[in-house]
Amino acid sequence: MEVLKLLLFPTLFLATVTAEYVRPLPRKTLPILRDSFSRTHSSYPSQVHVSLAGDKHMRVTWITDDNHSPSFVEYGKASGRYDSIAEGESTSYSYLLYSSGTIHHAVIGPLEDNTEYFYRCAGKGSEFQLKTPPSEFPITFAVAGDLGQTGWTESTLAHIDQCKYDVYLLPGDLSYADYMQHLWDNFGTLVEPLASTRPWMVTEGNHEKESLLFLMDGFVSYNSRWKMPFKESGSTSNLYYSFEVAGVHVIMLGSHTDYDEYSEQYRWLKADLSKVDRTRTPWLLVLFHVPWYNSNKAHQGAGDDMKGAMEPLLYAAGVDLVIAGHVHAYERSKRVYNGGLDPCGAVHITIGDGGNREGLAHRYINPQPKWSEFREASFGHGELKIVNSTHAFWSWNRNDDDESVKADDIWITSLVSSGCVDQKRHELRSVLMTS
Ligand SMILES: *[C@@H]1O[C@H](CO)[C@@H](O)[C@H](O)[C@H]1NC(C)=O
Questions:
Q1: What are the E-state strand segments in 181-303?
Q2: Residue to substitute in 140, 384, 386, 391 for testing ligand 1 pocket (most ligand atoms within 8 angstroms of CB)
Q3: Which fold has domain 139-434?
Q4: In the chain, which segments carry CATH 3.60.21.10?
C-alpha cells in the first residue's frame, strides 16, 4: 500500500506542488526515519512536541498508533518523579488512503517560569525534558521558516540546537509533506529532539494546505498535528492566534486564509491589538508566511493584497518587527511603512531559509530598494534576543558548508522607546473605530 502511494501521489499532484522557480543546490530529502514509518510499538508515544498554551501553561502533543492509548501527561521537576498529571484529548484524521495515528494533546500547568520539567506521555516510553520560558527579559527566540526535511534542515536544526533559545518561531511551511501524509510523521520524528524540549510556535504556509477539490478541506493534517493556542487567544481558527511571553506580544497571522477587512481574521486582529498593553508587553511582533517587503524575484508581489488590507492596522498599533518566510532566502528591511522609510514602521524580516527541498531563491531585483538593508540567498536561521524593554539583538546565521556563521546582526530599539507608540495611541483608536 505504501509503495502504491509513493508511486501514485507525485504523479497526481506534481503540477500543484512544483515550484515556479528553478532553485539550485537543494539537498536530498532525508530517508524515512524508521521510528515514524513503521511505528512498531503501537502504544508508545512518538513525535512529541510542546507549545505555549496560555499563561504558565504548555501543550504537549504526541502520536500513538494504538487508539486506546490514554491522553495523559505526568510531569514534575525531578527526573522520574512526577507529582502532577494532566488529562488531555485525542484526535485523528484520514487522508485518502492514509489513516493517522492517534494524536494526543494535553495541557500541563500552571508551570513555574524558566524551569526544567521532566515529563512522560501516557505512562509509557521515554522521559522527556522541557524548559519553560522566562517571565521577564531577556528572552531569546530562534527563527527559521520553510523548514522541510532535507540535509539542510538537519544542519539548520543542529545550529538552532546549539543556540540558547527559549521559544522557536516558525513562519510557515513545516514538513513539505505535500499530500504524502507519512512525511508528516517523518517530520514529527525529525524535529522531536528540539520540539519536545522548547515550545515551538508555528503558523501555516502554503505547503500546509493540502486541499483536494471535493475531497479534502485544507489544513486537515496541520490543524490536527500542530494545535496552537488559538482558543486561549480568543481566535476561532488554528490558522491565526497570539500569545504573550516575557514582555513580548506575538501575533501569528494566516497568509492562507481570509484577511480582508470583512474577514473573521481581520476582526480578531483588531480585537487582539486593542488588548495589547505596552506597559506589560513593550515589544510587539507579528509573523505570517508570505512577506510584504521582498526584493527577491521569487514570489514578487505575492504578499501585496494582505499588506494592503492589514499593514495600516499593524502600523497604527506600532508593531516592532514582522517576520515572514515563503521566499527561500534571507532579507532584512529598515523601518518601513507603505513602501517608504518610516521611523515608526516595522522592521520586516524574510527568513524562508530553513532548508526545504526546493532549494534557494537566488535572483534579486536591482537596484536594491531603499528599504532593503541586507539580503542573501543562503540557508540559515535567526536569533532574536530581547534584552530589555528598549533593546533587542537580532542575528542571522547562515549554514556555510554545515558551519553556522553569523552573517548579519543588528541592535533594534523598540518603538515604545522611540516615542512612536504614544504618538500612535489615538491613531490606533481611530483606526479601530472606523474600519
Ligand atoms: C537595555 O539594554 C541595552 C543594551 O544592553 C542597554 O544599553 C540599556 O542601558 C538597557 N536599558 C535599560 C533600561 O536597562
A1: 200-202, 241-245, 248-252, 283-287
A2: 391
A3: Purple Acid Phosphatase; chain A, domain 2 (3.60.21)
A4: 139-434
